[in-house]
Structure formats: structure tokens, C-alpha cells
Amino acid sequence: MSAPAMKRLLGKELTEAWRDPGMWLINLVLPAALMLLMGYGMQMFAHRVPLAVVDANPSGATQSFLSALRNTDYFTLRGYPDFPAARRAVQDGRTFGVVWLRGDFARRLQLGQHPEIGVFVNATDANHARISEGYLTLAWHAWVEQYLGDHGQKFQPPVESATLLWYNPTLSSQRYYIPGAVVLIMTVVGTLSALLLMAREWEHGGMKLLRASGAKLRQVFLAKLLTAFLSTYAGLLVCVALAAWLFHAAPVGGWLPVLGFSALLLLALNAMGLLISAGTRNQESALQISLLVTFLPAFILSGFVFAIYSMPAAIRPFTDLIAARFGMHGLLTLFDAGHIGTVLWWNGVGLVLLTLVFLLPAMRNALRRSRS
What is the pTM assigned to this prediction? Predict the structure, then answer.
């Protein structure tokens, strides 16, 4: 097939995609909806955690500490007369934990001693419990230091630490989960768009018509891949616009490298979609398989939620087959650290290799199907 014929084939694919309402839904509406859902619904920090408070001996000092907790967005406090009542509130699900201010709280402060508080949290959600306990500990030490300073005393902890925060000094969770959400969303959208483009041709007999017209299989695959890439890249631009406009997530490395690296991620995901469609007979089967091999593996094995180095040694090699794993590492680097050449290079190479690993078997399976 000549270059003009290839151009006409690509134009045909782009025109069909433009006229297909389903492609608009998948590539524009779905990314926007998922970005809003994950951006606002996925919070990796404690926010307005309900806590039961037991003040055994109310005083100015205890009220000062409780006021400091109330003035944050991290906790909402509910008073209870004694510890058994507060514990029942945790068991009933009305509160997440208990802050117990003992009767000698004010006296120990007046004597210059370090008072102690009892903190009890519901550890059925271990991660949330650790985060809440950490916030309470920080709030407690900050209040003690301020209170003693206001009363002419100096807070001297037994151990002092100097902490240096690299790459994300404000500890903003948005700088982590917004680029992670973009990768997860494009994992779903990029695969769906490509597999539906190809599965529809197989299901409706369009592939045999294209082959009968003289088009070679690799040219058909190239046209499908470019069409899926351009379609899903529009969805990527939607996600990027929402990340910058609504969530104020600006990459340290600039937007141009983010868009360039994301192009490699989309090519790998589109190739995986073509591989799935080449091994199935209809769109329904392709959709079911895509849900099993895209979002869940990307969510679990990409390092977004669970650190890869903490996984069992037998599981870690499988993460190299997940395109989102390389995309996650690359985008998080660009958002938080900027241009780190070795990180971007190796993750980019990983995405290119995955594109070939997915695309070549897809073409071989499609060729075998077209001859049957």
C-alpha cells in the first residue's frame, strides 16, 4: 500500500472515530468523570476524623489543648463523661478513636512535667489508624511546646530530630495522588479505546473487507494504533487540564515533558488493547478481559498504593509487565522531582519495550485469525 493509500486509511479510521459517540464517551467524558471522582474522592490523609474526648478533670490547660485540635481540619471532637462511654462510641462506629485526658493533666503541666494523654484508635483500618495517630502525636507535641513557651518554660524533648523533606516539602498528598490518578485513568481509557476500535472490526467483518481492499495487516494495525493514540491523547489533555485547573497540581519538570512521557505510556496501553482484541471474538469478551488486566493490576502492582520494594520477591517481577508501573514512576518523578534523566530514560525504555511486547503478538494473532 502506497503512502497516499495509507493516508486515506488513517483518514477513514479518524473519521469513524470522530463520528462514533462511544469514542467521545470513552475518550473525553469518561476521563473527566473519573478524574473528578478520584481527585475529590481519593484522600490519602486524615480529614475530619471523629474522635471521642474524655476530660477527666476539666481545666484551662485541657480546654486549650482541645481547642487546638478543634481548630484543625483533621479532627472533629465529641465529649463523653467517661472512658467506657467513649469506648462504646468507637464500638458502635460513631467515633474513630478516643483521646483521654487524665486527671493529673493540669497538675503535671504546672510542675513542669511532661503530661501524658491516652490515645486509642480503631485499627480495623490500619493505614487510617496510623495516619490519625501520627496527626494526633504531632498536634500534641506542637501544643505542649507552645503552651510551655507561653508560660515561660522550655519544652526539652529527650531526643531532637532534624527532618529534611525532599521533593515534596509541604507533604501535599495531591502531588502524589493526582498524577497517580492520571495514570490509572489513562490505563483504563487507553486500553478500552484501542480494543473497541479493533474488536468492532472483527465483530462486524470489517477486517476482512480491509484485507480484501489490498491493505496489509501491519498498515491496518498502524492506522488503528494511531487513531487510538490520538483519541486517547485528547482524554489525557482533559485529565491534565483538570489536574492543573481544579487540583492545582503543577509538575516541577514542566508540562511538556509530562505530555511527552505520557505519549509513551499511551502507546503501550493502546498496544495492549490491540492485543486483547486480537485474542477475542467480540467486544463483550474484550471488555471483560480488559477490566481484569488493566485497572486492578495497575492499582495493585504499579506502586501507587503498595510499594513495589515491599512486595514479595516472587511478585515483584510481574510489575515489569504493567505499563502503569513505568508510567507511575515517570510521572511522579516529573511532578515531584523534575528532570531526573536516568529515571525517565529507564521507564521510557520499559514502555517502548512493552509496546513491542504487546504489539507483535497482537499482529501475529490477527494474521492467524484473518487467514482462518
Answer: 0.80
